[in-house]
Structure to design on (327 residues):
């Protein structure tokens, strides 16, 4: 790569650089309005920089430890308690409790299949009796 | 005088000396005088807030860096805006329009033709600089326009000395190719 420094330029390059520099520097100007605008900004800058920093720092040094202490105290109030081991219920107690829970409600809705119920067998017997009585297949 | 007042006065002197060049650099990069002024104002306030209490020797590279960062932010915003509002007409090119001060006769140059040629040559140079990639433009501005050393320019650009030399070399080649060999001889 052709890495150059200004001192190492050829005569033509140096002439170009000098011409560009002089033209660009000659074009650095601000009109009245622009100068006034930037002057106002500089006034703001002066105000920013000339504000004493310590007035804020003193307030911060006092407030920050107080805030930390407040948070620490709030947290320390809720100390952790070691969990105590509760006695385990015996198997009989568990069975008794489960029986109560599993006992069917007297008025609870229950699903009963009618496929194998008394009506089904009754109808089946009637059908077989009717078939034995009939001379031919009823559905023939 | 207190330390704060002293550094405020020093910063004011520095900014008063640097503001006109910063505006021109930003103007060439953004192609808008108003946006350039906004950028320089923001950069001044940023410098004061963040680095106002630093030693005065550190201000020039910091100020350049802040201005360059703000120019880059502006260009990114413009890119996004142009993509979103693609139906809008292109931004008015302030550099291409004659400004009131351009039309005011400059008494230091007697010949009107010569004056016109100088203005035209400057405009061509500005357009060529604006068309350079960012890093090359930065290297050219810092080394040629500002006259910074390679080391100072490297600090501002956040890269090595070798990179600065490479960017400058490419920038000079691109500018000379674009402007032609006879440009530096024009008036």
């Amino acid at each position: 790569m052709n890495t150059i420094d200004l001192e190492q330029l050829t005569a033509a390059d140096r002439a170009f650089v000098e011409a560009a520099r002089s033209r660009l520097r000659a074009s650095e100007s601000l009109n009245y309005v622009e100068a006034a605008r930037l002057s106002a900004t500089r006034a703001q800058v002066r105000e920013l920089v000339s504000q004493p920093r310590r007035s804020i720092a003193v307030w911060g040094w006092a407030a920050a430890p107080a805030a930390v202490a407040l948070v620490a105290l709030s947290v320390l109030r809720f100390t952790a308690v070691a969990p105590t081991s509760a006695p385990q219920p015996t198997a009989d107690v568990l069975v008794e409790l489960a029986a109560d829970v599993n006992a069917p409600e007297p008025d609870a809705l229950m699903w009963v299949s009618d496929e194998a119920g008394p009506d089904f067998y009754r109808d089946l017997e009637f059908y077989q009796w009717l078939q034995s009585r009939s001379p031919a297949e009823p559905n023939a | 005088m207190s330390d704060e007042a002293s550094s405020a006065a020093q910063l004011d002197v520095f900014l008063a000396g640097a503001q006109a060049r910063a505006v021109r650099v930003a103007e060439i990069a953004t192609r808008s005088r108003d946006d350039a002024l906004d950028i320089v104002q923001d950069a001044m306030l940023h410098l004061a807030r963040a680095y106002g209490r630093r030693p005065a020797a550190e201000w020039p590279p910091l100020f350049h860096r802040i201005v360059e960062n703000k120019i880059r932010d502006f260009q990114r915003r413009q890119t996004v805006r142009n993509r979103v509002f693609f139906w809008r007409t292109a931004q008015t090119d302030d550099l291409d329009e004659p400004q009131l001060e351009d039309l005011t006769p400059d008494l230091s140059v007697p010949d009107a033709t010569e004056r016109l040629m100088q203005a035209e040559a400057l405009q061509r140079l500005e357009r060529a600089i604006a068309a350079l990639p960012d890093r090359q433009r930065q290297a050219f501005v810092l080394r040629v326009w500002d006259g910074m050393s390679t080391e100072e320019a490297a600090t501002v650009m956040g890269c090595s000395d070798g990179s600065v030399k490479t960017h400058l070399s490419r920038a000079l080649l691109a500018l000379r190719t674009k402007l032609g060999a006879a440009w530096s001889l024009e008036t």
